[in-house]
Amino acid sequence: MGAFIELRAADGHAFPAYVAQPPVLPKGGVVVVQEIFGVNAHIRAVADSYAAEGYLAVAPSTFHRVKSGVDLGYTQEDMGAGFALKGAVEALPAPGVLQDIQAAITHAAQGGKVGIVGYCWGGLLTWRSACLLSGLSAAAPYYGGGVTTPEEIARKPRVPVMAHFGDQDHWIPMDTVAAFRAAHPEVETHVYAANHGFNCNERASWDAAAAALARQRTLAFFAQHLGSGA
Description:
alpha/beta, Rossmann fold, two-stranded parallel ribbon, 7 helices, 8 strands, 20% strand
């Protein structure tokens, strides 16, 4: 359904983004932010699924500033490679990869109002985008590693946020989710009986029921805040 195009950030950096067009006139745009495994088959499928719901979906390559063409699976070796790449991107001088997400938001705005959804590290970048970037109308981070640290909790979102967590996620302890929820009563926070990565059907931690419910809630949230794109 989609294809890669080249986008350009404000600092001139050119990078690929997977863009999926809806079958009808877009009712909004959705930026899909990758996990630590690149814009792989799963993330492309997520973008395609949002396009099928009527959104112009854009999945930027958030690794491209440190390595091009990253498309990993979900083995332990892949996870190690992904963590190393994430560390390299996080070490970039600010605003770093947020510039690329901003360019993706601008492109998605061709479809109308823009929401952003991200998974794993992409969940963290989604939260930061909601707090720091312009042009968004809603944000839905999924199990964003680091979102519940004091540094990230201190941020203030500029747009409505719906956050999804799993109560069996050993990367994100429940006491830190409770702290996030207490600090941000304005955020619609949902906790599922599931593990980290529960949305990804290519991971052992996939939970079909949690993934379906979270998606239903996110689609309703986007419908509320993105509307018809007007």
